[in-house]
Amino acid sequence: MSGMIWIAAIAAYLIGSIPFGLLFARWLTGRDPRSHGSGNIGATNAMRTGGKRVGALTLLADILKGTIPVAVAIMFDSEQLLVAIVALAAFIGHIFPLYLRFKGGKGVATMFGVVIPWMPWVAAGSFAVWLIVFRLTRYVSLASIIAGIALPLFAWPLGASVEAVVACLLLGGLMIARHYSNIGRLWAGIEPKTGSS
What angle do CA 186, 145, 118 make, to 5 degrees? Predict the structure, then answer.
């Protein structure tokens, strides 16, 4: 079992490390999202850099690179510890990608991606929170932070395993930590809203 965990974790990490935001932006526009906007390779900055098509493709790919490894882990082994490790490995691959010297995205899409096949109702609840906060405030960062807090809060009452709840705590916590600069701007009242210049 230990050998399988290592193989699965490494494979999930390498898949999670694929910088789709950078690849799509360069392929479709010739621009590098690391040189524009926030400098992030995630879907939000990819859209700012290359437009809605680049943003949509990045969002989908960043979700799938979390969903696919976890779905495969569930298919071949329902052991909750293995699934949790694969989920965390794919997520960590996105925020600390091997291919970009460990400078990656903030992990929001991939966080949802790893949870969707594992705990679909938890993913749905957390996304509903994201959507409500975003609609009310127009802050993508604030919506993401609140969704990360909501993730384990949905997991526990919805009957998730201990391993799954711990994974949700780590996923949400790491994703929120990646928003440290946004938290500072939100506190200072200078965080840009979606749709503002």
Answer: 170
